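Notebook p. 47: complex prediction with flavin-adenine dinucleotide.
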Amino acid sequence: MVGVRAELKALFGPRALLSPAEKGVYRYDAILVGPEPLAVVLPETREEVQALVRLARKHGLSLVARGAGSGLSGGAVPEEGAIVVAFTRMARLELDPVGRTAWAEPGVTTARISEEARPYGLFYPPDPASWRTSSLGGNLGENAGGPLCFKYGVTGDYVLELEFVDSWGEVHRLGRQAYDLPGLLIGSEGTLGLITGARVRLLPLPRYRATLMAAFPEVGALAEAVSRAIALGAVPARLEFLDPVSVNAVEDYLGMGLPRGHALLLVETDGDDLEVVEEELSLVEETAKELGARVQRAKDEREAEALWRARRSVSPALGRIRPKRVNEDIAVPRSELPKVVREIAALGEAYGLVVAQFGHIGDGNLHPNILFDPRREREERVWELAHEIARVALRHGGVLSGEHGIGLMKRAFMEEAVDEGTLEAFRTVKATLDPHGLLNPGKVLP
Amino acid sequence: MVGVRAELKALFGPRALLSPAEKGVYRYDAILVGPEPLAVVLPETREEVQALVRLARKHGLSLVARGAGSGLSGGAVPEEGAIVVAFTRMARLELDPVGRTAWAEPGVTTARISEEARPYGLFYPPDPASWRTSSLGGNLGENAGGPLCFKYGVTGDYVLELEFVDSWGEVHRLGRQAYDLPGLLIGSEGTLGLITGARVRLLPLPRYRATLMAAFPEVGALAEAVSRAIALGAVPARLEFLDPVSVNAVEDYLGMGLPRGHALLLVETDGDDLEVVEEELSLVEETAKELGARVQRAKDEREAEALWRARRSVSPALGRIRPKRVNEDIAVPRSELPKVVREIAALGEAYGLVVAQFGHIGDGNLHPNILFDPRREREERVWELAHEIARVALRHGGVLSGEHGIGLMKRAFMEEAVDEGTLEAFRTVKATLDPHGLLNPGKVLP
Ligand SMILES: Cc1cc2nc3c(=O)[nH]c(=O)nc-3n(C[C@H](O)[C@H](O)[C@H](O)COP(=O)(O)OP(=O)(O)OC[C@H]3O[C@@H](n4cnc5c(N)ncnc54)[C@H](O)[C@@H]3O)c2cc1C
Ligand SMILES: Cc1cc2nc3c(=O)[nH]c(=O)nc-3n(C[C@H](O)[C@H](O)[C@H](O)COP(=O)(O)OP(=O)(O)OC[C@H]3O[C@@H](n4cnc5c(N)ncnc54)[C@H](O)[C@@H]3O)c2cc1C
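Predicted complex, structure tokens below:
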């Protein structure tokens, strides 16, 4: 390994040779911790990425791509002896307001794209709740969604061109023609190539927004209301849900007068005409009322912002109930939501563990969070429950991951989730694009 | 081959053993003609497709998937000794209005999805001009677009799940998770798998539509107007263009009073509020006028329909100028449109051939059509010109195919269009999913 260090030093100088304390930061993402990496490299150009791939090949080392490390499936967590490639310094961003596109390097923070597009009346729709920290590279790695994805779609829907370095160190820059290799790279969690840039689509900013909060006595009625309003033709931009556990936690945290013990639905409609935007919100309002909800419409931007702040505070708020948690991420058909939410709540009770549920309910995307204290509650039981929750999703025709990816966390589960033929096809794809197992080994595939 | 015939007969009965006259129909698509296939099979179930793949493997025969044969790149044209798999009889369609999806077999005609969704207030956006004949399987094979794709996106953007039979005869039914194999199959022109079904997304029908026609003295000004209006924030649903040659041809054909010698822009806006829909159209109207256009707004549905009929009549109208034509299909950045349209017109003149241009101009997608009479004009020169046109696109940062695919027609061109590394990656994908070259050999890859 001395040879590797010397070579890394020659190629990248001190950037590659962080102290053990510094390297410690690169052991974990937002859910899992791994061993200390052999080295952490912060490349600044695609040529440096190429050189790194060639070096890793020569020495038989593995490379783990990393954006902001905000992932929730362990995708960026290194295995023993791996080199972490952190893309934070590759963060150039060029806007083309006329063509309504942006060329962005992987280290660009998600929120920055919309911020820089705003003066031109444009925005970049994919908005994971983590968007102030998460990177475009990580969003591409996980094909991240966000509250806006019900109306606007996920990261991959906005990619026009993708540039990546393959496991031989070659650069490719591809549009989405003939064989859609960019599509194959998107969502592959760093296991098929290292993304060094993307051209993404921007959309015109809608002129108006309107927000409401509906408080339901019970989660099933909330799910029912969502499903009915959508069937009636509502296409809200955001459609978020908090169960009573989450509501109480946020209320303890912010003290903003949320209705404790209720299930909350937050809805935003958007568009270029205030009347339509209001009308569409009214459709949701009426449906919610029919199902027993109390509805509060935000009177202005400030009130709306406060409601959305409640949603964004779920994560820190839950952190105050128990020091640790496992964030599940499932997606089920909307029609199954009432049953699924109730079954998960019952499972939590049966295990004697606190489970909070929230998520992008318009897409049937739920984030059941199991909260625990490792000093008092056995972590194995927590993971057992997480697996039971995933099984509930599969039983109801859902999928293993709504948007956080498979990573380390769910790879063992792939065998239950997809048939052997599909797994075989996945393995073939991996073996073809990365025959030496250089890129993020041990992720995605069981 | 007697063994093959006997086996086909045992498996499929007379359906597989069409007479030479009947088989003749399966030699061509809408642009190229090939040899007579060995056999034509019309499977009715996925199990029959599987049996056919196994039979073809055993005998070392190739399989050419075929939908309606309306393709414009020769994708469904058989090679010598191939079996054509025509999906016309696999045409089951099941709607789920609440989930806003449809499960469709490949033989379902594109337009039928929207027709059956209409009573539920829903529609299926991808709308190739050929949608009354083209099949979903062919749309998936080519990742077809259409006039609505500027606002709504292409076929692949609506696919939630894909079912296909691989070259070993195994069936896979996949969502778009982990490695996006459905995305790889979409646009692969029958070379990676035989698609036997798809779950597609449906959208709520917009309540209002408004249409205008703008007549420009010159094509460059038209392209400029499109680019400016879009930069100002207009998101029309349809944005179609006809050059003066096309306009004259349609006027000769329909006699509806179109302004001969002008370049025409047809624009439709849609949405749930009449005012916004009208406003958005006004934005385009003003920009067009600034650039010297005469603008006519459709007063009602009937007038709008007449204008769109003009657009849809381009194909038959051009057929009256010369008996044959080669339909090119390029896409270039919008900013390059004025230059590209002019260069192509000049090339046509230099070759002494009639070139008509029209297309989905909002996406920069042009269809330069070379019209010719094989008795008087040498077909080689026509193809030479077609290649020159493709080169114009590449020189201006465009791509080889906007939406019709590579097929037979453009495969020789792939070498100029993509770098060797990308081609190598494409070949690897093909060799991995179809190692025996069973599926539509000789297409896409040079
Ligand atoms: C509070 C909170 C809220 C969240 N909300 C959402 C949400 O609403 N929606 C959602 O989808 N996710 C959400 N997430 C999860 C996470 O933020 C997303 O998955 C995000 O896309 C990760 O980005 P990152 O830059 O942090 O990536 P990382 O965690 O660093 O990496 C993620 C994966 O991408 C790979 N990768 C990173 N860069 C590259 C590259 N250049 N080339 C190839 N592969 C690469 C990594 O190897 C890894 O497998 C949330 C997380 C938190 C902590
Ligand atoms: C007048 C006219 C207008 C047109 N306008 C447009 C337009 O606006 N936009 C546009 O994109 N195209 C347009 N086209 C081209 C054509 O209609 C589209 O490419 C359409 O998608 C082809 O569908 P098809 O069913 O006819 O496919 P086919 O021509 O039969 O096949 C097309 C390709 O798909 C493959 N394929 C077919 N079925 C399957 C299957 N089940 N599994 C795997 N592969 C399969 C075939 O092997 C072939 O490679 C137009 C054509 C005409 C003649």
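Notes: DSSP finds 16 helices and 18 strands in chain A. The CA atoms of residues 50 and 170 of chain A lie 7 Å apart.
Next step: compare against the earlier run before touching the bench.
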